[in-house]
Amino acid sequence: MLGQGACADPLLISDPHLPAVPRTQAERARIAKVIAPTADFTQPEVFEANQGGAGTVADTGDETVFSQPPSTLPFETKLDFELGNALFAKLWVSSPSSTKASDGLGPLYNARSCQRCHVNDGRGHPPEGPEDARTSMFLRLSVPAEDTPLTELEAYLAQIDGEAATPRTRPVPGYGGQLQDLALVGFAPEGRMEIDYEEQPVTLNGGEVVTLRKPVYSISAQSYGPLPETLQLSPRVANPMIGLGLLEAIPSEDILALADPDDADGDGISGRPNIVWSRHFEQPMLGRFGWKAGEPTVEEQSAAAFHSDIGISSPLFPAPSGDCTAEQVDCLAAPHGADDVRGAEIDQIGMDLLTFYAGNLAVPARRDLSDPQVLRGKEMFSGAGCSACHTPKHVTARLTGDKNAPRSFQLIWPYTDLLLHDMGEGLADHRPEHRATGREWRTAPLWGIGLTSRVSRPTTYLHDGRARSLLEAVLWHGGEAQGARDAVTRMPPEDRAALIRFLESL
């Protein structure tokens, strides 16, 4: 059911994507005991090293640490993993092409492959200068829906939230839902994302001054008419790929149980679930993936990226012109790679392989768990209230089927509740997404964050890469996280250093 206080007459939200065995009362009691917050910070917790459960992998020592299959992946499925990896890295080409299995790119796009955005299966970054590529970052676009008819999802959300429903949006006429800054020969890119930064100094206890950079976004070289004054834009860098299948396997009832939209317990934290439309199952589902939890499953997140980022059609997004709008007539009429033996430009077999790969990228093991500074930092993390949103532990559903074995009934440590939280005006994008408001973001998982500097260069954090260090990322927290942020600024320097050391161990 929807979380505490979500609505007067809650509607059932299920997990049709999970072939799960119902939990017994004894299992529920056991799980509650296992995931209860610790009060002992003198030593590591049992199994804390295995962030990704039994399939946790050892640190490779290089930039490939996010690109490993789980150690428990059955041998007979390893070929599927490698084929999915090949599809993830494949460079798509324009149509018509003699390479029928790889044509269909664009005509407007942001990247030619998944790997171009998620380099080493890690996170993206904003451009470092005017000449740097924008490949691993883009702008989502929308305008207010005004009086357009409600979609099935919007009607559902209106029933849940009534007058408090999040304002609706629509794609921008002539531009769609995302700014495509690349185009095939003969087509003009939609525009170019420009970023200017304003510096904001913050003084911490002990005298340290940290300079934050506040981004200001604009779009130059607008090729398809002037953008409307009501434009809503949201910058997004690519998310790291590890542990997605494990997050997908957390029962929705466990996530919904953490929701407290009316802050009934008075702790200042009022997370709530995003509810999104599943194209696969044709029903509302819990949103889990993306910066605002806008997609319900790994498959749908992957298909949406193919559609908007690369312009590749799939069974879930059959339009071969990608994000092109009715006003972009030439784009709609361009040659494409659909309607051959594949049907869509990537068929269901291909999507299944890529989804298997994306859902089985393993989580690396924790490091330095017994280090006294790391243990002190873990205590600071808890004491500051960070774990109120960055929930350390979950247990995945007990799943059937050999392919699901690596993620079935696993104790995992993602440090997220997968809920939406108001993060304050400083991080607001003022662009709603389904149930998420323009100030709300999904709690980002923290597992693997300490390895980001090795996997992803340049190394940045937050949804738009504005933070150049973990401390900067913490200092941008506001809204529901303001109390935790202020607690960090008041910490003695040695405790603040321990907190960062703890994050680096994840």
Report what the structure shows.
A hairpin with a 4-residue loop joins strand 9 and strand 10 (283-286). The strands form seven sheets. Strands 4-3-8 form a three-stranded antiparallel β-sheet, with no helix packed on it. A two-stranded antiparallel sheet has the order 1-12. Strands 2-5 form a two-stranded antiparallel ribbon. The chain contains 14 helices and 15 strands. It has 506 residues and is an alpha+beta fold. Helices cover 24% and strands 13% of the residues. The model is unreliable at 1-9 (pLDDT under 50). The longest helix is centred in the middle third of the chain and has 13 residues, at 298-310.
Radius of gyration: 22 Å
Distance between the termini: 32 Å
What level of helicity do the residues show? Answer: 10-25%
Structural class: alpha+beta
Identify the overall geometry.
globular
